[in-house]
Amino acid sequence: MRFLLTGGAGFIGSHTCVALLSAGHDVVVLDNYSNSSPEALRRVERITGKKVKAYEGDCCKAQDVNRVLENEKIDAAVHFAGFKAVGESVHIPLNYYENNINSTITLCRCLSAHGVKRIVFSSSATVYGADNQPPYKEDMRVGGCTNPYGWTKYMNEVILRDLQVSDPEWSVVLLRYFNPVGAHESGLIGEDPSGIPNNLMPFICQTAAGVRDMLHIFGNDYPTPDGTCVRDYLHVMDLAEGHVKALEYAVEHQGTEVFNLGTGEGYSVYQVVNAFERVNGLTLNKEDAPRREGDLPESFADAGKAEKILGWKARRSLEDMCRDAWHWQKMNPRGYHG
Ligand code: WQD
User: Fold this and answer.
1) Quick one: 6 exposed, middle or buried, by C-beta within 10 A (0-12, 13-18, 19+)?
2) What is the pLDDT of residues 223-233, one digit of tens each?
3) Among 96, 128, 136, 149, the one annotated catalytic
4) Does the active-site annotation cover 149?
5) How far is ligand 1, taken at its centre, from the CA of residue 234, in Å?
6) Under 8 Å CB-to-CB from 255, ≥6 apart: which residues?
7) Averaged over 40-53, what is the pLDDT?
């Protein structure tokens, strides 16, 4: 089958290209490269030995989306494209709402007009908010987000559900990602954050590489076993393989389904740091620091539904995540611009 990936040159999109091509599918990418590089797609071609058809364009512009749909026969779309920096979203909320909501609406209108009524959406565990206790289950009441980025994920879920109710021919799959980290085993593609990384694993990698002086561990007095926050870290190639299953499911079914994509296992910040040091044989400059505003003590998935219905289960370990993240960092000290 042939799938459209908006934002397909980004971190999760590029790894999903590899997984789809390896599973025998074709991919068409629509990306405006605002926070990604076409080099990632060339690397995907190197890894897979297959072609990636790419269009430069913006999902908020109907003419850009229509250009792809007029040229390509598409079976379903995955909508990765969007702004994703939590902190930035607090400072420029209108940009986040405008971009992340408009792109979904425009994309769905264009898909519908071309008779492609199947979409997989990149949602986030952040929609579970502070009102639920982990392990998070898909049927928990969502909302209560703590930042505009999280609200755009929540609102897009609502919009897509409503669309499907209005037109039962639609197939909508909402994927709630936990904490994707790591990189493709080859070290050719990986996470390439712009500026100072906000997320733990890229910050660890840059500290190990000497790009950053010191890793700050935000908060050691949480009500968790070692006092640091617990998250459900997930290897990005496992996540990518989850998209293959979700797309195949979307093609076979109608309705709206939501799946957590996580391992179901929580690790603390100290555990991640220790694993990274152990696996890669190095010592990080690190110090305990005050809590970061907005962090929840614990977040991890109940991953049972994806296993039962999609037949998907994360296979890679925390050690694999740490090794592959560092491999990518060492091979690409300046990301795709090196
Ligand atoms: C993990 C843990 C930090 C950096 C966020 C978004 C979520 C999703 C993924 C993506 C926390 C601690 C971090 C550092 C640290 N969004 N930490 N020092 O906050 O669980 O999820 O990213 O597009 O929606 O909310 O992930 O990697 O930022 O943090 O101690 O320098 O690491 O406090 O406990 P988070 P994270």
Assistant:
1) buried
2) 999 999 999 99
3) 149
4) yes
5) 13
6) 164, 168, 171, 172
7) 98
